[in-house]
Amino acid sequence: MRSLPTLLRTSFGASRPGARSYKAFRAPPIFTSVSTNSQNRMASSQASVFGLQDPSLIKFQGFIDGKWVDAKSGEKIVVTNPATDEELGTIPEMGVDETKEAIEAAKNAFPAWSRTTAKHRHDLLVKFFQLMQQHHEDLSRLITLENGKALADAKGENAYSASFFEWFAGEAVRIYGEQIPSAFPGTRNIVIKQPIGVVAILTPWNFPSAMITRKLGAALAAGCTAVIKPPPEAPFSALALAELSIRAGIPPGVINMVTTQKHVVDVGRELCESHIVRKVTFTGSTPVAKTLYKMAASTLKKISLEAGGNAPFIVFDDANIDEAVDAAVVCKFRGSGQTCVCANRIYVQSGVYAEFTSRLAERVAAFKLGNGLEEGVTHGPLIHRRALEKVERHVNDAVEKGAQVLVGGKAIPNSSFFIPTVLSDVPRDALINTEETFGPLAAITKFETEDEVIRLANDTDVGLAGYFFSRDVGRAWRVAEKLEVGMVGANTGFISQASIPFGGIKESGLGREGGHGISEYMNEKLITFGGLGW
Ligand code: SIN
What we know:
It comes from Coprinellus micaceus (Glistening ink-cap mushroom). The active site is at residue 306. By secondary structure, the chain is an alpha/beta fold. It folds into two domains: 39-307, Aldehyde Dehydrogenase, Chain A, domain 1 (3-Layer(aba) Sandwich); 309-497, Aldehyde Dehydrogenase, Chain A, domain 2 (3-Layer(aba) Sandwich). The chain contains 15 helices and 22 strands. It has helices at 4-9, 36-48, 96-114, 118-134, 136-147, 151-172, 210-222, 236-248, 264-273, 286-297, 321-333, 353-365, 385-400, 450-458, 473-482; strands at residues 62-64, 67-69, 76-80, 87-92, 178-180, 188-195, 198-202, 225-229, 255-257, 277-283, 302-306, 311-315, 343-349, 404-407, 421-424, 441-447, 462-463, 465-469, 487-490, 505-506, 509-510, 522-529. Strands 14-15-16-13-12-18-19 form a seven-stranded mixed β-sheet, sandwiched between helices. Strands 9-8-7-10-11-21 form a six-stranded mixed β-sheet, sandwiched between helices. α3 (96-114) runs parallel beside α9. It is globular, with a radius of gyration of 24 Å. The termini are far apart. 54% of the residues are buried. It binds succinic acid. The site of succinic acid has 8 residues, from loops.
């Protein structure tokens, strides 16, 4: 397995020898009432369409208390490949009852799990990490099949995803307490850290694997147990992780997964309002984050929210243009623009505007759009038609207001593919400058001065990531400090790694993940000892 930065940087434009060619397929019909044997046969025939080396990584059931389970109603959700619109398989349409069972299982598993030694949890997380490396090809292929991102990009995600288990294995054995000098004679203050309890993890489809491990790694390392609600659009990576957790030796009930689509609001409410669940952690949109925040308020739960961004990407006249163009390609078009930290608004100073714009357009025109499993494909589809419609709306709005289409500008009819697009002369009042596009659209706006661009960059309710390019050290400090975001890329368009405090300010969310994020899964407890007798 190549290193994470190499995988991510080569995701764009590199040909990938060894990538398998894609074969069209259709899953067999689904019956709801069948015997276990025929269910197993059916599952294995469905699994075969994924073309994995280890088909037993494919699961079509939820995971509660160490068992694979169907929805009580027998209902199923059909999951499709966004590149082909073909059915990949089905997962159970679970609801509140199954969620309660999962919470109960996590509650029952908590006492024993929370008392394991940090070294034991470290060892299991290392094993989990190694299993993800061992199954790197299969897990990456799975990400491409369900999310659509190009295989090299999916390989980057799997490496990134596994790295959270490695990172938090290290954090597990460094959960230190504190001794605080006491104000009173004969007493001592000690602070210990204890796992918070049952954690609810709600994750999005844009990183079907990594957004789980970033949260689950911290939860497991801290000694918490978890109920996970994976995205219904891309649930198979999550279920494969559940399978690997068994192989890693994580005990039943420590990790539970409830799959749902139709009942998502009720399941979310149950997780947020349960008196057993002590923490909710979510990655997704700002409106959903606000809803969960309100729901979790009823039990005053600890909550981490990684919500939407609207990242500015600023190129000053004194930038290294080669580096800025390379960075824009990765930062804007990674996952076809479907990451919360993707550049959304590209501001370029007038002195380098023409050069940057034409060079970026040239690079984007060379992308190869298609099924991410096919040789040479650099960019895949959007997750579904709704996502595509938003990109279309942003392009049309900008063009109506005077923007020029340099590359792309339209969708491929009857598909979820939007041609990677570069727009120049995008007016400041264009929708794209106020809303996150979440698609492959580079919208470039010209600016004149540093003060002006800082004002533009900060003129938004959200603040997740921001990027700028300048070789002036004084300016670099000024801009880095003035950008109202949680994470700044200074002369780089790529910041994501397990060791950093990932998170935003303003309406981009609460809390930090990765880095020292294990603290979000622990309570500090003060113990004041008296009676020392002196
Ligand atoms: C996200 O899009 O929410 C996460 C992006 C990342 O971790 O790089």
